[in-house]
């Protein structure tokens, strides 16, 4: 089948339909062509191959032995061509190395990514998950293209777009005296032993949490845990309290833990999309545009 090289793919697609229908009128209708136009395409293909592919009859046509072979080869050839075209289109659309932050999944974050995937299905999204500080390092080093982070950030080289805000809740042991209250005033938590993740994981969020929950001081750090799930497990042991984002805390639903709201002013933390301001990746700017349009 060396003579298939250089053949117009549209002619092969037309022949593939004719081989399935074995009727010029029906094949032309499927292809949205006139019958004479289809006949011209088939004759041009036959001339290029140097042999008849179909035998025409009053009620239709049949494939010659060579035509049957061409039909079989055409199916594989067109499938490979379509796959190659999809790969080329994907390369043109780009790749997006996107990092999530461990404390924020679901809600507007996942909704934004879902909208992006639907709008740009050819973009290959390569997800990862990390704390804000490692995500920022990845952005600055070029290891990732965009990341969800917990602001505030002190990085002038990064653009940071607001995605959402969520309430901070107080997690207390189920038998703790504060579990009996509906709302917790700030003085009630001053001096109580608390568990928190290491500040270096996200300095901005760490400091903002302390400033809002313990504004007059009294933050008593008794233990570090690596993430929100482990914070809540530590609270369930019975002696520690923790300030945690509402979305993550409610989704975990750990036994032995009660979640309580604070009195006004309600403490909150933000989630943002960050990327290098000088990024030339089209996928990054498309994701950012979707976020801006949703605001």
UniProtKB/TrEMBL annotation:
Protein keywords: DNA-binding, Transcription, Transcription regulation
Stored CDD domains: PBP2_LTTR_aromatics_like
Domain of life: Bacteria
Record keyword Cell wall biogenesis/degradation present: no
MF (Gene Ontology): DNA binding; DNA-binding transcription factor activity
Boundaries of every HTH lysR-type domain copy: 7-64
SUPFAM superfamilies to which the protein is assigned, alphabetical: Periplasmic binding protein-like II, Winged helix' DNA-binding domain
One Pfam family, short name: HTH_1
Any GO CC annotation of this UniProt entry: protein-DNA complex
PANTHER family assigned to the protein according to its UniProt record, in alphabetical order: HCA OPERON TRANSCRIPTIONAL ACTIVATOR HCAR, TRANSCRIPTIONAL DUAL REGULATOR HCAR-RELATED
Family of this protein: Belongs to the LysR transcriptional regulatory family.
Name of the protein: LysR family transcriptional regulator
Organism field: Paractinoplanes toevensis
């Amino acid at each position: 089948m060396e003579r298939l090289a250089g053949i117009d793919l549209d002619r092969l697609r037309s022949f593939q339909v004719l081989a399935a229908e074995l009727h010029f009128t029906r094949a032309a209708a499927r292809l949205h062509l006139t019958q004479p136009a289809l006949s011209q395409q088939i004759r041009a293909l036959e001339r290029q191959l140097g042999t008849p592919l179909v035998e025409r009859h009053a009620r239709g046509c049949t494939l010659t032995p060579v035509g049957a072979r061409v039909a079989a080869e055409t199916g594989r050839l067109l499938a490979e061509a379509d796959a190659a075209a999809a790969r080329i289109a994907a390369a043109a659309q780009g790749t997006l190395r996107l990092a999530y932050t461990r404390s924020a999944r679901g809600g507007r974050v996942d909704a934004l990514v879902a909208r992006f995937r639907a709008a740009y299905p050819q973009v290959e999204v390569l997800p990862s998950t990390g704390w804000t500080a490692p995500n920022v390092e990845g952005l600055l080093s070029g290891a990732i293209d965009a990341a969800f982070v917990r602001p505030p950030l002190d990085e002038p080289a990064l653009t940071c777009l607001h995605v959402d805000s969520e309430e901070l809740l107080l997690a207390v042991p189920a038998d703790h005296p504060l579990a009996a209250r509906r709302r917790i005033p700030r003085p009630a938590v001053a001096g109580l032993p608390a568990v928190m993740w290491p500040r270096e994981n996200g300095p901005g969020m760490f400091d903002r949490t302390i400033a809002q929950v313990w504004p007059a001081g009294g933050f008593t750090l008794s233990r570090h845990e690596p993430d929100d799930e482990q914070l809540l497990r530590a609270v369930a042991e019975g002696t520690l309290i923790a300030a945690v984002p509402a979305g993550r805390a409610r989704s975990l639903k750990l036994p032995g833990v009660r979640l309580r709201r604070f009195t006004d002013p309600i403490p909150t933390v933000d989630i943002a999309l960050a990327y290098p301001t000088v990024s030339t990746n089209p996928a990054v700017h498309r994701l950012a545009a979707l976020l801006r349009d949703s605001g």
